[in-house]
Each structure stands twice: as structure tokens, then as C-alpha cells.
Amino acid sequence: MESTGTNTASEPGIAPDLDLDLVTVPTRQGLEAVDIIRRAASQAGGVGPVLHDGSDDTLGFLVPPGTADAWDLPGSACTQTNGRGMRFGDAASPAAGSTGWLLPPEAVGPVTDPEVLRAALGEAARLIEAADNCR
After folding, report:
1. Buried b / exposed e across 101-125, counting CB within 10 Å, b at 16+?
2. Fewer CB within 10 Å, N side or C side of the chain?
3. Is the pLDDT of residue 9 over 50?
4. In the sheet where 21-26 sits, what is the strand order?
């Protein structure tokens, strides 16, 4: 998977040092969602920075602050930073465990639009279900 690209998310004015929320999903669904968002980037924004955990269980999409207040997509979680932990301006690899960047901030730009992410995760879940049912 590439780690470069541009992002035309609808919130380009987000300051780089602003606290952000983090949407976490299973890795398989997250990777599908990254591909879906990149294919549709010309229509509805792009994918922002994405974290992966060292065990390859989850991906985390950085989204605008406040997203967690209304996030209710089954199979995912959205965590508020509330000024704790990593901030968007931290371009170095995160220090927690062996977590690292799948798509680093300097390669993709602004955070992922929550509505674009929600749609991509839904489509990814349907694609995975269809693929699993073909076996």
C-alpha cells in the first residue's frame, strides 16, 4: 500500500496542533476503507493520517475533534483525546508500544472527514462479507 497522496477533506483548515479524535477499526476493514477513500478522493475528500498497532489488529483514523460525540458505527470505536496523548503535529512515530504510521501526517495532510470514513467503512464491511461468503 502506498503511503503518499493528497487529501482534500472538507476540513482543510484544521490546525496541525489541534487535539483530534481517533476512530479505530479492525485492520482488514480499515485497509479496505483506505482503498475505497483513495479511489473516491476526487469526489469526496481523501484519507488523512492512519495509525496501525504493532499486533496488526487495528487501524486508527485521525478525525476532527468532536467526532466521538456522535460516532455510533458498529464494529468501530471513536476516542476523544481531550488534550491527552498524541497530537496531530507529532510527525514522529507514536511512542506507544510498536504502534506506527500506515499513512503519516506529512504524507497525506489533513484528517479524514468522518462522513467519508463512515461511508467507506460501511462499504468495506459489505465487501468483506461478500468475499467471505464466496469461500
Report:
1. bbbbbebbbbbbbbebbbbbbbbbb
2. C
3. no
4. 77-80, 21-26, 58-63, 50-52, 100-103
